[in-house]
């Protein structure tokens, strides 16, 4: 079914906004999310230590794509200021099999991470739905590994060469690249999230999580 396109309006009623947000929660679940909840933007946690984890231990995708530091160069003040312009966030959660996020070979491009790609796609589709409903500034953030790992693991990022992103309508900055503490946010809303590292075995955790956020 073709989506109806709404006229942009300077003033969106509270009733319309509430109804649309509920629609996006349903949409996220229809697209495969295990859960999606509405949060007020004052529930978004921004912490400089999140960005510090890009540097120590140094992430292998640092500097390799437009959506990771240093190319994604928002400072925390900019993140906080941008968040303050929105009322709600569509916070999305997808459970993935433990095997998808564990093991020493996680960074091997042959290690498949379909859940991460699905979360990017859910975020992009919810953001797109909001755009066509009359919210031109809806803004999406993935929560998992960088877009380089998910979409362009075998090729150089065209974006950092000034040639335009290959996956511009699917790739978004991650929550952590903008300094958002997605783990603490997940815990606060009651989602079970486990520490996963190089030595984690699949049998040690119930599931992995992919997280996403769309600001409305």
From TrEMBL:
InterPro entries associated with the record: DUF2284_metal-binding
The protein's superkingdom reads: Archaea
Name under which the protein is recorded:
DUF2284 domain-containing protein
């Amino acid at each position: 079914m073709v989506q109806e396109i709404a006229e942009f309006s300077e003033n969106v009623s509270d009733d319309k906004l509430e109804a649309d947000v509920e629609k996006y929660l349903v949409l996220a679940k229809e697209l495969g999310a295990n859960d999606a909840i509405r949060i007020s933007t004052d529930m978004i946690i921004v912490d400089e230590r999140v960005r510090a984890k890009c540097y120590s231990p140094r992430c292998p995708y640092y500097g390799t794509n437009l959506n990771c530091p240093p190319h994604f160069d928002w400072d925390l003040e900019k993140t906080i200021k941008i968040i303050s312009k929105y009322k709600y966030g569509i916070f999305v959660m997808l459970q993935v099999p433990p095997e998808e996020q564990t093991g020493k070979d996680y960074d091997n491009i042959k290690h498949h991470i379909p859940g991460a790609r699905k979360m990017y796609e859910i975020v992009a589709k919810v953001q797109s739905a909001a755009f066509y409903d009359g919210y031109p500034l809806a803004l999406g953030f993935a929560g998992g590994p960088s877009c380089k790992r998910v979409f362009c693991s075998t090729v150089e990022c065209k974006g950092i060469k000034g040639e335009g992103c290959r996956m511009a309508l699917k790739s978004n900055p991650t929550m952590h690249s903008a300094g958002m503490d997605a783990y603490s946010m997940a815990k606060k809303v009651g989602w079970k999230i486990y520490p996963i590292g190089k030595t984690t075995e699949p049998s040690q955790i119930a599931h992995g999580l992919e997280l996403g956020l769309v600001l409305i």
